[in-house]
Amino acid sequence: TNLVGTSNADFPSGDPGMYQLDITLRRGQNLAARDRGGTSDPYVKFKLGGKEVFRSKTIHKNLNPVWEEKACILIDNPREPLYIKVFDYDFGLQDDFIGSAFLDLTSLELNRQTDVTLSLKDPHYPDHDLGSILLSVLLAPREEQREVTMLMRKSWKRSSKVTFNYDVLPNMPSSCLWHRIYSPSSCVLMTLFCVSSNQNHETVELLILRLSDLHRKSQLWRGIVSVTLIEGRELKAMDANGLSDPYVKFRLGHQKYKSKIVPKTLNPQWREQFDFHLYEERGGIIDITVWDKDAGKKDDFIGRCQVDLSTLSKEQTHKLEMPLEEGEGCLVLLVTLTASAAVTISDLSVSSLEDQKEREEILKRYSPMTMFHNMKDVGFLQVKVIRAEALMAADVTGKDSFSKSDPFCVVELNNDRLLTHTVYKNLNPEWNKIFTFNIKDIHSVLEVTVYDEDRDRSADFLGKVAIPLLSIQNGEQKAYVLKNKQLTGPTKGVIYLEIDVIFNAVKASIRTLMPKEQKYIEEENRLSKQLLLRNFIRMKRCIMVLISAAYYISSCFDWDSPPRSLAAFLLFLFVVWNFELYMIPLALLLLLAWNYFLIVSGKDNRQHDTVVEDMLEDEEEEDDRDDKDSEKKGFMNRLYAIQEVCVSVQNMLDEVASFGERIKNTFNWTVPFLSWLAIVALSVFTIILYFVPLRYIVLVWGINKFTKKLRSPYAIDNNELLDFLSRVPSDVQVVCIH
Questions:
Q1: pLDDT digits (tens, 9 = 90+) for 640-677
Q2: Which domains does the chain have, with CATH numbers?
Q3: What is the reported pTM?
Q4: How does it sit in the membrane (predicted)?
């Protein structure tokens, strides 16, 4: 079907992901005043299918704001209107509603830019004049969908017996061959083919193969873009003290990162690294914005710049000094484009590890002989997604209320994300797909999530499992019980996976002492009473351990138990009289060995943390209530005036509690690989401190610190001990991943 130039009556009944809507939010006119001073601080939200797809910046104290912001939205169903809502920003309080409107996409002519003026209305006061919003919109079919359509046409011309009818696909006989492809990166969803005669199978199989290649091409990235944020120079002062608290946001397509905040400086030093996936052969554009952090109010915009990746040569590091537009100063970056990592999707019949030659090559690549080659390539992961059973029914259709689901599976390892095809109307789907990943950190957690595909709205969650790579038993097909979103309890169904991990232990150990890969920017933290209480209790438990230790020592001083106090006194005299620095790591080494002995002998003193589990379940229930009441206004919303401060305290409690729990879990052998690594490190430190005088160790340390920036000007600062502890799970993470 040629969709170019069609009218609103010619739209298909909803082909998911077929359209792209480019919107330019121009300005507002005569908006309603919501503040005491007779003005407003307006911003705009675009919603599609009940989900927010765009939010503009806030224009302060202006009833005729000018935004000139652009947004690109992928449309699943053009018959679903786009809702535009305008709010007045109130710091710490519930934002005031100004007005709303909706845009009927079927009224737009395809491939033609249209200027639209929308009058804002309030459903409760339909007669009030609340102003208007001016937009420029362009609705067009997706390019990848055109390519698929042309491919289908050619195949149909070769065989008139190939027919297509979506409505009858679920009821077709088993002899019919059909296939469906879903691509998250291009939001293209295609349901294809019924072949009623055997002579057409070859034609359709070729078509399926070519479409599968297109599907994989849209999912798999062509390369990795590594961006190192070095520093900023002579940035604009945004605070009253003549300084700023700058941080940087990066965006490449749907991938987002945010740097740390450097307080009170116009020449910040960040030295942070971020990795992006590059999906397009011709490159892309990284949008970079610099902001000044302001506690208690909207962050100030400092400036922006862009990096056009198509102008940079590959396999080479480029040092860029990017002047900031709409601001002052510049950013210094290092940008490197490298070839794609070995990430693949294939059927069960094509397995890298089952091919003896390929398996030997993979084992050779991660053998001890290659321990110092390509330190970022730690290992190889192969995931076989076989099938699922007894899934939750997400859809109810028909006169008999027949329950079903249309499940597909998403496999994630850090920022690498791939997915299977969809199996329709089935609670026991079989995917039989193989995914391979490069492992950059052996302490990563593999996440496998099952969703129900829904043509008219976002996919429904069916279940999830999280599997630490170090806990995987190679080559064993295992049934994993699906859990809820928070991984705190089971949901309905199981999924069958077979996972293989091959890695270089030396590389994995060295990478453990390097900074952890950052995840893409996720949703902003929100205030949660249960989360705040949970973090407070965790913090209290850590402090109580120290208090109990202090009471124990005090009881020795008070001779509450004479035998114990006498033993402690003699030990004290012996240690103080013979103390050497090597005794500190030796004591920690003995503690690790003692706990390992208890575990091996069956006297494990680790307790299952039911308290944390109960708190996580309460938190999940609270999240459900918050989702239902998110649109309601009430007195409680007014109590969130200090939300940012509360969230900061909440996160600080989480960090402190996690730090204490990570130390405890290192000695408790929660992750044996890390505990063994600690034993090796402590043994080495003990030997060094025993044989090498302390003054020489301090001298080497000082020389290294003083000369580090001279030897490597753009080295990223890190603390090996903190990087090690970041790999040790906290009590909450232990509950979620086991």
A1: 545 666 776 777 788 888 888 899 889 989 888 999 99
A2: 19-141 (2.60.40.150), 223-338 (2.60.40.150), 344-395+403-504 (2.60.40.150), 529-600+639-737 (no CATH)
A3: 0.52
A4: Multi-pass membrane protein
